[in-house]
Amino acid sequence: MSEPISPKRSAFLIVGAAVAALAATSLAWSQQSHGELGALVYADASGSASAQSSKADTSRAAFLRAWTVFDSPRCKNCHPAGDAPLQGDDSHVHIQNVKRGADGHGLYGMTCHTCHQDANLPGANMPPGNPKWSLPPAKMKMVIQGETPGQFCRQLKDPAKNGNRTLAQIMEHVSQDDLVGWGWNPGDGRTLPPLNRPDFVAAMQQWVNNGAACPQ
């Protein structure tokens, strides 16, 4: 036969049971609360990562649209891999054996302005012109010929290769420089870039606004 429980011990057991129940309830609430909080934190982090990935994809797609202009003869011919400019819609090497020169304006008596005046000469395939006509200087060639979109994108963003320009200055260059603008006024007998200048600038701005991500 078991020993009768004294009133004092009975009260102690009741209080103990109540404390244990409260602790269990508190633990369960804490686990649920932390679980919900963890889910919220995870969802927020996942959403943020997804948003960043989406922006990068938008940026890359915008650059690929702009790349169609960079890779056209109107841009590529003045951004060759070697030291001779290219010419024609087929981007063949300049037939007069012209060379870049240190400053990009040619060598000796074969400077750019020997033939290229301040404006296009009239007639089909006559020498085009602009006051700034030149290649990039030898120390900063900004090569387009033979580059992939990703390679040129990374080159374009590199201050050591782009003339120490910021993204804002790159945008100013592509949207306002009159030598860049010549590409859409190249003279008779030359094809235009595949995008008009406003669409090209809009693609470049979308590239910058979404993080200036480069294609792989």
Task: Give helix % range.
Answer: 40-55%
Count of beta strands: 4
Poorly predicted residue ranges: 7-43
Q: H/E order of the elements?
A: HHEEEEHHHH
Number of helices: 6
Q: Largest sheet, described in full?
A: 2 strands, antiparallel
Major β-sheet strand ordering: 1-2
The fraction of residues assigned to DSSP E strands is: under 5%
- Terminal CA distance: 84 Å
> Average pLDDT, to the nearest integer?
85
Structural class comes to mainly alpha
Oligomer: single chain
What's the alpha carbon Rg, rounded to whole Å?
Answer: 34 Å
Tell me the overall shape: elongated
Overview of the structural elements:
The chain has helices at 7-70, 73-76, 149-157, 167-176, 178-181, 197-209; strands spanning 86-87, 92-93, 106-107, 110-111. It contains 6 helices and 4 strands; from the N terminus they run ααββββαααα. With 216 residues, the protein is mainly alpha-helical. The N and C termini lie far apart (84 Å). It has a domain at 66-209. Helix 4 (167-176) packs antiparallel against helix 6 (197-209). The protein has a two-stranded antiparallel ribbon with strand order 1-2. The protein has a two-stranded antiparallel sheet with strand order 3-4. 48% of the residues lie in helices and 4% in strands.
